[in-house]
Amino acid sequence: MAAGERPGGGQTHYQLLRLSTTATAQELRLAFRTLSKLYHPDTTTLPAAEAEQQFQRLQTAYTTLSDPDSRHAYDRQLRLLQLQKAAALQQATAAPAAPGLGVPAGQRALSARRALSGGEWFALVLLGAALVCSLVLGIGLAWWRGVDLLVLPVSVQTAPPSGDTAGDERPASASDAPLQPSVAGPGAMAAAAGSEPQPQ
Fold first, then answer.
1. Minimal CB count within 10 Å: which of 32, 34, 108, 149?
2. What SS3 state is found at 154?
């Protein structure tokens, strides 16, 4: 079997070993060891011929992926196959549009949504927990230090009591009238006050 071929059943070597394409050498060894116990002719419950065939496929996958050069070549061939499949799918969906639909062929292909993986869910839950903890910690520390959580704006704090009107709109009182200088001398002011002017 060539390095680029998919092992039986249309599975890639990675799928056969139940690994991602980014698996490390240690993960590869562990997966091979675990799966070889399932398919080894001495330890399996499968019929001998089927177990031997599965074990041979498993060995081929492990041999290909454990050697860095053959793994690199295998990965290149897998990417090429994926690109060919994507191009064929794009050509199939890019068939001529019926007249009058008005949708260009390139815009008809819709992106497929996928479910979130376990790691992505874990990251979302961890992010949410961090947000909640930050809010609780911030509010708790502010409360412990005695900081007011709700503070009125300065304009409301410095405004006159609600019965008075603000600055320029208030009517002028007699005490607010400007003082005018007297035309009479200083003695006239004293006489008006009820005292005698003193001779000079």
1. 149
2. helix
Tokens in use for 2?
Answer: 């060539």
Q: What are the two backbone dihedrals, phi and then psi, of residue 140, each rounded to the nearest 5 degrees?
A: -65, -45
The tokens describing 6, both together, are 């998919």
Distance CA 36, CA 58 (A): 7
The span from the CA of 149 to the CA of 141, in Å, is 11
Q: Is the dihedral of CA 174, 175, 181, 184 positive or negative?
A: positive
Contact between residue 106 and residue 93 where contact means Cβ atoms under 8 Å apart: no
The dotted CATH code for 8-93 is 1.10.287.110
Using a 10 angstrom Cβ sphere, with 0-12 exposed, 13-18 middle and 19 or more buried, the burial of residue 74 is: buried
63: pLDDT strictly greater than 50: yes
